[in-house]
Amino acid sequence: MAAPAASDPESFLKSVLNHVSSPAEPPQNRPFVTLTYAQSLDGKIAGKGGKQLILSGNESMLMTHWMRTMHEGILVGIGTALNDDPQLNTRRLPVRAEPYPQPIPIILDSQLRFRSNCKLVGNYGSGNGRQPWVLCSEEADPKKRESLENAGVKIVPVKSNPQTGKLDLDDVLSILRKLGVKSLMVEGGQQVISSFLSHKSSSTGKSAVDSIIVTVAPTYVGNEGVGALDEGQLPAKVAHVSSTVMGRDSIVACRPTES
Fold it and tell me: What is the spatial distance between Cα 90 and Cα 146, in angstroms, rounded to a whole number?
């Protein structure tokens, strides 16, 4: 597939995410899922201990914000929420009279470590952002839940794995679909990206991800960085869809495949 001009991120995204931008109906048991992240030339996406790395250039960051307008929800893990204090909005896009669609901020946080004084809650309280949703374990502390709900956070309990304590991704996606989220953009951090890359549906045996868009920055990080996959995890097989260049960065779009 020939990529549109590098200066037109919106057209590029529509060409590689046509299943999201078209009227196609998502699966009944989960949303359409787009997994996206930036990495260095040596495959690092973050620093050790969850330290944030600024890898994307201005042009590819603009593309990411366009991508947010195309999805109803945007999901990160609690590590990213605590370390980066993200806003998960479309603030980098050009000013226009008609407001851009804003995705629902969704946080995976099994033990409710989410802070009520973060930017997501502040933006919602001031009318500059959508209500953040925090997905937690069904066994999470009721007092923490009440405190966050009083601050304006929507709490959504889901099943967790009794061995690992991590939230069950099948249940996460099923509940989000039941709550009306038909398209989901997964942005990070490392544990969340790794989990989605290696996860297969318990009912279908297929990947829970529909599209993968990776920004490759022309830089090396070295031993102080961590990659997209946890040690020992096997990613889904992928097929190349399209590639382009935005500013200094290379953008690669793929889709999981069974062969």
Answer: 29
- pLDDT, position 258: 76
Region 209-213 average pLDDT = 95
What's the pLDDT score for residue 43?
93
How far from 180 is each of 76, 77, 192, 220, CA to CA, in Å? 18, 20, 22, 40
> Could you tell me the fold of the domain covering 33-41+52-220+233-256?
Dihydrofolate Reductase, subunit A (3.40.430)
d(CA 232, CA 93): 38
pTM of the predicted protein model: 0.93
Annotated domain spans of the chain? 33-41+52-220+233-256
C-alpha dist (Å) from residue 233 to 173, 195, 199? 20, 8, 9
pLDDT tens for each residue of 103-159: 999 999 999 999 999 999 999 999 989 999 999 999 999 999 999 999 999 999 999
Q: How do beta strands 225-226 and 46-47 pair?
A: antiparallel
